Amino acid sequence: MARSDVETFGLLNRWPVIVHNDPWKFNQINGLGVHEDGCTTQSIYLQFERDFIAGALHRSVLEAAEWLGFLPVPTYVENEVVPLDLSAPWDQQELQLKYGYLQAIGARQILEIASNEPVAYTDTNGDTVEDLATITIEAASFDLEEVRVFYRVDDGAEGVAHPSWEIEGLTRKDNGDGTVTLTGHKSLFVHPDVWAQEYSSGQVKYAGDTQTDAHFVAEVDVYRVYTNLDHTVTLHAQGTTYEVTAHINDTRYASLSLSKLALNDPDPAYPVFATISYIAGYPRSRGLMYRPLETALVRYANVHTPQQLCYCDRTLAMWKDDNKPPEAITQADSENPPPFGITHAGFELWRVIEPLALKFKGRERRSYPNADKVRYFKS
């Protein structure tokens, strides 16, 4: 699975799908069964190139989120600082979190389902190359979307169930007998030792081989990833902290109010701000980001790629087209460009975002008077 230390909101492993790149080569694998489309071994992607793409995707999403007023998929936000108005009682203020489509107040929590779980590889098309990875575990009591697969620390992950070491893009199936089966392309299970190497000799890029067992992980860890709904909100007041509870008033605009955990709890004295952990973002459909937005974000990321990589012909054609200005560009567009610039990809992203944006939450809220003022409600 292509990975990076940069958060890509699930887009890094969707990138080769959307730009029609070979998943084996994107994950630094070559050999029998790899589609040959006239590209040389230089079209193999190394880790620094995947990091280039990850950085561009990260920037693309955050820029879009500023205008949307929400993140494109449900995402955990840890300890967001929310300022309070000192001129009004803290428990009579209606607060707004930064990102809309609030799913729940709470922190990311993990629970081990199975460690060192074997991965079975099989050949699905009779070309003698194993191309499908399968994991079957006992997990009937959990929501399917909460069942996640991770690289093990023994194979190079920097922590147990670490978010940036999750194996994304898997299909989940409840077998009805208390077990869950997870499947995905074998290229998602490349051993991290392969990524640690760059060039085998001279300027020839190093690649693992589809038929070398050591180039793929034999075992993985499976965890339940869920939201700890017992998580509290912290008020910060004059060097003292107080735990309070949150009440969601509006999920779309992520507005909430606060109250004491219990009536006999001490009353916080002039709290200045609250720190709140939560999960928010536009709901997935069949496990994927809203398709038009997903495609527009990936294509816009091409504008932010720091240099042209060794793309195959199809991907290179997309990269060039995304970076070109539209033929119908006007003088007004040049003098007052739209939010994402005057490229094909920038225009398309704005076309997708404009009807989705939460008008009073994204950057367009600046167009409305008093939009940033704190609102109050009667207790």
Summarize the structure.
This protein has helices spanning about 15-20, 25, 45-70, 190-195, 290-305, 315-325, 330-335, 345-355; strands at about 30, 75-85, 95, 100-105, 105-120, 120, 130-140, 145-150, 170-175, 180-185, 200, 205, 210, 220-230, 235, 240-250, 255-260, 275-280, 375.
Characterise this structure.
The chain is an alpha+beta fold. It has 3 domains: 167 residues, no CATH class; 85 residues, no CATH class; 119 residues, no CATH class. Helix content is 20%, strand content 28%. It is built from 8 helices and 19 strands. The strands form 5 sheets. Strands 2, 3, 4, 15, 16, 17, 18 and 19 form an 8-stranded antiparallel sheet that branches. A 4-stranded antiparallel sheet has the order 6-7-10-9, with no helix packed on it. Helix 3 crosses helix 5. The longest helix is centred in the first third of the chain and has 22 residues. The radius of gyration is 24 Å and the shape is globular. The relative contact order is 0.21.
